[in-house]
Structures are given as C-alpha cells and as structure tokens.
Amino acid sequence: MIAAALTARGAIPRALTIAGSDSGGGAGIQADLKVFTLLGVWGMSAVTAVTAQNSLGVLAIHEVPAGMLERQIDAVVADIGVDASKTGMLPGPEHVRAVARSAIRHAIPNLVVDPVMVAKGGARLSSDAAQDVLRAELLPLATIVTPNLPEAEVLSGMKIECLEAMKEAAVKIHEFGPKAVLVKGGHMLPVLCPDGTPTVIDVFFDGRDLVEMSGPKFHTKNSHGTGCSLSSAIAACLALGMTLYDAVLTARRYVEAGIRDSLSLGAGHGPVNPWSGAKEVASGDKPWRSA
C-alpha cells in the first residue's frame, strides 16, 4: 500500500511534526519521526518544548519561545516544503497562535491536530489559555482533530461516559471548524463482542457521517505514545496522498499492532512498537472493521 502510494506520487512525501521533545523516545517528536520514517515519509520537526522525560513520567519542561517555534516552521516550509503536518504538545497560547499564523501564512495542507493536554504520567502539557486559543484559532484550520476522551471532554465541555456521548462530543467539536473529528475511545471500558473479545470503539465525524470504528482492546501498561503515533500516522498517510478516511483507517491499524506488540522499556509505561505498526500497514491484508 505504502509503496504503491510512493510510486503514484512520483515524489518524496514530506511531513512536519510540531510538538514537544520526549527524551525517552516514546512520544512527542521522537515517536512522530519514527512513524514518518517507517511509513516512507520524510520527517521534519519544529520543537515546541523540551521535556526531561522517561517511562515513569515528566520530570521537567522547558518551553521553546514562540518566535523560535515560528522560525523553525518558516525554515522548513520555505526550503523543503510540507505535504502534511501534525501538532502535538503546544504548551502556551503563544505557541498555538504561532502555529495558526504559520499554517495560514504558508497554506500548510493536511493539518492533523492532536490536542495533547496531559502526559501518560499525569503531568499537564498545555495551559487552560492554550486550550481556549486552540479551540478558537487552530481547530478551524485543522483537517482532523484527534482527542482522547479526557481531551474531548475539555474541547466539547461535556461529560463523556458512553458511545452516544462520544458521538455528541464529536459533533460539538466539529462545530469549532475542523473538517473532521476522531474521538478516541481507549479510555472507556471496552465493549464485549458476542465471542467475549474486548473491543474499543472510536467515533469519526466529517460533518456528514458519524462512523463507529472498532478494534481489539489490549490490556497493557505499555501504551506510551499511542496518541502521538496515531496522529503522526494519519499525517504520514495524508502526505502519501490517501483520502482522510483511508488515512484514519490505516493509522488505526498501525497503532493497533503497535499496542499489541508494545515494548517493555523502563520501569513505567513502555512505548508502542513502531516496527510492528509499520509491518501491519505494509501487509495491507487486515482492514479495520467500521460499523
């Protein structure tokens, strides 16, 4: 699938991650660049913050000045170009505004917004003011926004405790202006299939269709970088020329395999396995179920 997309485009696809640095390598720009490379996309980065981080949590955060963030984006776009971009950790409102200005100035296509708010260990990665600006200024520019349930609750202003609430939240978030919303259901108790298999359900909404996307629920503590990997995989697939819907389905397959074969690195939350995800996508023989 990936090789065919590369051949069809006849050019090197380019993707930019605008996110924080995870010194442990499991999330942030380090995870994003792994995903880009393994899916056949040239990866570039604009760093929003530097964290001292490992599998046990975030020990310290140093924010990059917003002006420097904007210069990084300018440098990459002006010389190399961008076919798709994704955002991750945007710690302050000035960082969100810098990204929004850059996206407008350069007409950056295929913008995937992962509204990162809290790290796996509980550390806050985004201020309340940043979240307000994200809703008002960045979501209207997004091709897709990919909140988990706690993030969807913040963005929608409602409690989400069931599938119907996920759908309602997706519609509410879509009203802020993104072309599509993917509300991830990994934090919700899994649904049991008739055969007893635990299943997780995400909700995709593009302004017209509400689609339930289901896949197996894996019980593991090693899920660090799940959201980063999903959003960067979507961006990579968009850079490769896939439709948004196919990009989401492919990215979900990537993350499913990564969680299934997650890595026990460190004493805390280990990362998802980027190699397994890439092998799964390359096989192209196990499509996700969509209800």
Any overview of this molecule?
The C terminus is likely disordered. This protein has 291 residues and is of the alpha/beta class. Strands 1, 2, 3, 4, 5, 6, 7, 8, 9, 10 and 11 form an eleven-stranded mixed sheet that branches. It is globular. The protein has a single domain, classed as Ribokinase (UDP-N-acetylmuramoyl-L-alanine:D-glutamate ligase, 3-Layer(aba) Sandwich), CATH 3.40.1190. Helix 4 links the parallel strand 4 and strand 5. Helix content is 41%, strand content 21%. It starts with a helix and ends with a strand. Helix 6 crosses helix 7.
Termini Cα gap:
23 Å
Number of helices: 10
Poorly predicted regions:
285-291
Helix percent reads 40-55%
Overall outline: globular
Largest sheet: 11 strands, mixed
> How many domain regions?
1
At the first level of CATH, the class is Alpha Beta
Topology summary:
Blueprint lengths: L1 H8 L4 E9 L5 H11 L3 E13 L2 E7 L2 H14 L4 E4 L5 H14 L4 E3 L14 H11 L5 E2 L3 H8 L6 H12 L5 E4 L7 E2 L5 E8 L4 E7 L9 H14 L4 H17 L13 H10 L5 E2 L1
Parallel strand pairs: 1-2, 1-4, 4-5, 5-6, 6-7
Antiparallel strand pairs: 2-3, 7-9, 8-9, 9-10, 10-11
Helix pairs in contact: 2-8, 3-4, 4-5, 6-7, 8-9, 9-10
Key descriptive features of the protein:
single chain; 291 residues; alpha/beta; UDP-N-acetylmuramoyl-L-alanine:D-glutamate ligase; eleven-stranded mixed beta sheet; 10 helices; 41% helix; 21% strand; globular; disordered C terminus
